[in-house]
Structure to design on (164 residues):
């Protein structure tokens, strides 16, 4: 295998992508998979807490600051036009990388359609592994899962990882 499987969890804003990932991730971990997640933020975000050493060093002008311990590491890098492929390179040790968002990408995806915020699919059907919804929306040839069908979604993701 040249790298981890990459699968997006997509949908419109407030469709429940983070909640979905919060429920699916522990199931995938229990199945023995190493899971990485990359979340896209359409705005800018604060990568570390004001007052921490890493923040103070970034404020001093460092373009990249890494923090590590015996059990984890984190890298904050100031770089314009970050490419998703650069982040995927950092996740080589994972079995699967789940992308939160990326609805217009070519990545295979599970799209969430939540009645409270949407009544239609916004992803290209040829990229969909499944549609997770609490609506009557169906796409020919695309399996439909309940919006809270976390076990079913995890089994689908697991089968994609094992095919690689």
């Amino acid at each position: 295998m040249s790298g981890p499987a990459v699968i997006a969890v997509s949908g419109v804003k407030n469709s429940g992508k983070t909640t979905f990932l919060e429920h699916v991730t522990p199931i995938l971990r229990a199945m023995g998979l190493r899971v990485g997640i990359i979340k896209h933020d359409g705005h800018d975000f604060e990568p570390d807490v004001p007052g921490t050493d890493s923040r103070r060093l970034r404020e001093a002008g460092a373009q990249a600051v890494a923090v590590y311990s015996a059990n984890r590491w984190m890298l904050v890098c100031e770089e314009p036009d970050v490419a998703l492929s650069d982040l995927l390179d950092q996740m080589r040790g994972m079995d699967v990388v789940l992308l939160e968002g990326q609805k217009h990408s070519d990545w295979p995806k599970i799209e969430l359609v939540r009645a409270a915020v949407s009544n239609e699919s916004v992803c290209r059907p040829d990229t969909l592994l499944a549609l997770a919804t609490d609506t009557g929306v169906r796409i020919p040839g695309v399996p439909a899962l309940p919006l809270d069908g976390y076990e079913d979604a995890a089994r689908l993701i697991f089968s994609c990882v094992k095919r690689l």
